[in-house]
Specification:
- By secondary structure, this protein is an all-beta fold.
- It has a domain of 64 residues: SH3 type barrels (Roll), CATH 2.30.30.30.
- Strands 6-3-2-1-7 form a 5-stranded antiparallel sheet, with no helix packed on it. A 3-stranded antiparallel sheet has the order 8-9-10, with no helix packed on it. A two-stranded antiparallel sheet has the order 4-5.
- A hairpin with a 4-residue loop joins strand 2 and strand 3.
Length: 115
Amino acid sequence: MKVKTEKLKRQISFHIKKNDLVEVNTGEEKGRRGRVLDVFPEKNQALIEGINLVKKHQRARSQTKPSGIVTVPAPVHISNLVLICSKCGKKAKVRRERIENRRVRICTECGEIIE
């Protein structure tokens, strides 16, 4: 009897989510801030608005999208990002708690809930 082995997919949880304000820790873009556009948990990367911009040669798909060289953001590894607290504006270390059957992120600097 053959037994199929399936990969166990577990939900990966990161310290940042979509629409969070983050700052880049290392690399060429160090110190710059931007909003998270998208998170890719399978690659441990996030797409940040205005950070890590690359030029892409685009082919014309229709009359509305002309061909040419466009500038688009490229993903950044999650470990190179720090969450910025919306209330105090500082780099936030985050702890997680359950409040009213909801998991929330709390800034350790000011104690504010980060949505």
